[in-house]
């Protein structure tokens, strides 16, 4: 069984973003999703520091240190893009105006709780940024993360053991093995992305999975 | 004649007192008022509480102020960055306090202070470690956490252009916390890249009206520490 690469995971998630959506893309792996959006779809990216209509990374000769994204990397602005200040930017997030946000995850629980902001290590300064605002604010929250941690531990779990970012906030998880929805009955497998049996997928997951019933 | 222009950064920060709460604009390097912060180091005020999204980069601006031992407490959302070694070291040694606040909650707490609102309920952070000890209320079937205003004694902000009444425009993503910090402080001090005559700024495009601003100093080529 060959797991999806990070690029393939991003590409699979990108397929599910409706044209014309307003989307916030988090720092890290989610940034790869932007590479698979069709400009003709006019999917408008929001950056928490006050940009709507954010374009791709700035080429070397267009770097402007006052034109950066949430990860503080130089980016560009699409024609029609806009700037605004932090109160408005977080009104966009918290006020339910974004159709979707895509974040990385450390753990997702069977009830859609998300942990992605802290490893809870003593002595390390806590740093949350905009993660908690996004988690509660966007209409849908898609988590893009590997199915298992580097040591093989499942990242989809019955209950988060890491400090949570938000409770019951996750809509879907896109992993290197499957697309899984947080549904009223629990974690519902929408699609397997690799050649894997239901039993094996379940064995790599820390929460009970519900599989589609054969028609 | 109303004239909020002051001659230099040192004059602009002359009355910042020990123990003051100082709001510092910027997100990473964009909008960071480096020269006002350097003037504040020279001025000598200490035991400060600083509100900023981050906790300084490299050893300039806010990081230099922290390194000089002038900051008792940071209120910020994201102190960790690849170049925030000054803060990280001080934090590890227990020489600086940290109040970690979600980014949108910082913005709204400042807005509350500036707008005369005595606090607000937000869904952000409900059920997390950052909501511990805070009042929770159920509103329309959802749980909200109470957050109180953050008022500054001073705000240090960077803008693009300003006139003698203190009207301001910003540039690109350097706007970030500027407008709300201007509202939220008793004394707002702004460094602009360019002084302009009254009437040069299009009234339709003024982002911060001068009523929120007390002093403006022109620093033509500010240092950006990204």
TrEMBL record, chain A:
InterPro entries: 3-oxoacid_CoA-transf_B, CoA_trans_fam_I, CoA_transf_AS, NagB/RpiA_transferase-like
Keyword Transferase included in the entry's annotation: yes
Disulfide bond is among the record's keywords: no
A matching Pfam family: CoA_trans
SMART domains: CoA_trans
Record keywords, A-Z: Transferase
GO molecular function: CoA-transferase activity
Domain of life: Bacteria
Family: Belongs to the 3-oxoacid CoA-transferase subunit B family.
Name recorded for this polypeptide: 3-oxoadipate CoA-transferase
Organism in which the protein naturally occurs: Pollutimonas subterranea
Automatic annotation (TrEMBL), chain B:
Matches recorded under SMART domains: CoA_trans (SM00882)
Pfam families (alphabetical): CoA_trans (PF01144)
InterPro entries per UniProt: 3-oxoacid_CoA-transf_A, CoA_trans_fam_I, CoA_transf_BS, NagB/RpiA_transferase-like
Keywords tagged on the record: Transferase
Keyword Transferase part of the UniProt annotation: yes
Chain segments annotated as coiled-coil in the UniProt record: none
GO molecular function: CoA-transferase activity
PANTHER family linked to this entry: ACETATE COA-TRANSFERASE SUBUNIT ALPHA (PTHR13707:SF60), KETOACID-COENZYME A TRANSFERASE (PTHR13707)
Family per similarity comment: Belongs to the 3-oxoacid CoA-transferase subunit A family.
Name the record gives this protein: 3-oxoadipate CoA-transferase
Source organism of the structure: Pollutimonas subterranea
